[in-house]
Amino acid sequence: MVRGMKRIVSRLLMLAGLTTLITMAVGLITYYLSTYYQWHNITHHMPAKAQAELQELIAAGQRGSDRYFELYERYGGDLPGVTDLGMIGLIGFISILVGGCVSVVLARRISRPIADVARAAARVSAGDRSARVDRGGVSGEVGELVDSFNRMAAEIQAYERERTVLTAGIAHELRTPLTILKGRLHGLADGVIDPATGEAHRLLRQVEQLSRLVEDLRTLAHADADELGLDQRRLRIDQVLHTAVADLAASAEQADVRLLEDYQPLLVKGDPVRLTQVFTNLLTNAIKHAPRGTLVTVQLCQRGGWGVVEVLDEGVGFAPDEEERLFIPFWRGAADKRLGRPGSGIGLALAAKLAEAHGGRITAQNRTDRSGACFAVWLPLLQLTE
Question: Other CB atoms closer than 10 Å to residue 1's CB: what's the count?
């Protein structure tokens, strides 16, 4: 945008120069037209003998001789453009008028979209995040300025929406365990609940849930601020993936879901702990959405310079309008809310941020071969020289 603004300033300077040239050109044209008119008027009333003499003087290069001026003044009055102040004033007026009109038209064409951007920026700063500028037929640097502003406004609006969802999600996720803790602690304090019934262990599980949530939020905040310290090293991504699958084998068995692995040995540079967290979150999400008795497939293959980890379930997938919101912290799909599936809604968002911190990304799409969803982690592979 800064480069575009510099080009706009250059355009304005060019406009000022063009206006000056137009004004000068109009002045010169008006002057020569008036001179021609005066010359035509003089020769029209001049006797033939005087006309012949005047032409001879011009042909002989004596345009400025005394006789030339004598003939001119005798039949035409004052010399053109020298003593006729009215003519000079008329020429100046016409020049300024034409140059001014051209300047106004060009300046309005350039300044109108800039003024629209200024008004829209004022609306955004006042809280109207939906303010946009109509590009219309504007092109060039001013058009780029309009497009840049609209993109910025859209990003601000998306950020505000995510912040609202994040705030509401944090409040919701903290309220549930805190309410349970508060109620049970009151019961213990009032003697309603017997401490010997294992209540302390149940309360400890609630505290651990809160701790995990706070740790995930802290990691997410560091990732957003690009302050996530990664212990990156050369590693076999298939081995990290196999470890994550093995750790979730018991959870899959409890959910009556079978895990199928298909790996190609590939090298990446990454933090094994954080990558395990990425794979664990995706696998947990797949197991949660997989119907009982179905299969969750975990694949690893090479596509160009990328190692691609795919986690495929056989659930119902997600609605088309939900794809862009899958990685928003604390956002949960309508089906999850309706069926009361457990989860905070932060796992996918955290996995996406951790993948980005490794120079990769996560994509999501519904399967085409059957029902279900496919989440893919794209990580840059190590070159042989690295």
Answer: 13
One domain, residues 344 and 305 = yes
pLDDT in tens, 34-91: 667 766 766 666 777 776 777 777 777 776 677 767 766 776 655 544 445 565 666 6
86 and 197 within one domain: no
**What pLDDT, in 10s, does the model give residues 189-217?**
777 777 766 777 777 777 776 777 777 77
Read off the tokens for 344: 């905070």
In a shared domain, residues 215 and 243: no
Q: Can you give the residue range of the structural domain that contains 86? A: 2-128
pTM: 0.56
pLDDT for 344 equals 63
Tell me, yes or no, whether 156 lies in a domain.
Answer: no
Residues 237 and 190 placed together within one structural domain of the fold? no
Q: Helical H runs in 248-379?
A: 249-254, 272-289, 334-339, 347-357
pLDDT of residue 136: 72
Same domain, 27 and 88: yes
d(CA 216, CA 230): 15
190 and 312 fall within a common domain: no
Answer for the pair 157, 130: CB distance below 8 angstroms, yes or no: yes
C-alpha to C-alpha distance for 171 and 33, rounded to whole angstroms:
81
Q: In this structure, are 255 and 370 located in the same domain?
A: yes
> Which of 181, 205, 224 is the last residue before a domain boundary?
224
The whole-angstrom separation of Cα 20 and Cα 13 is 11
Q: How many domains does the chain have?
A: 3
DSSP-derived pairing of the beta strands 373-380 and 361-366: antiparallel
Single-letter amino acid code for the residue at 211: S
A 10 A CB-CB count for 115 gives 12
SS3 sequence of 327-342: CCCCCCCHHHHHHCCC
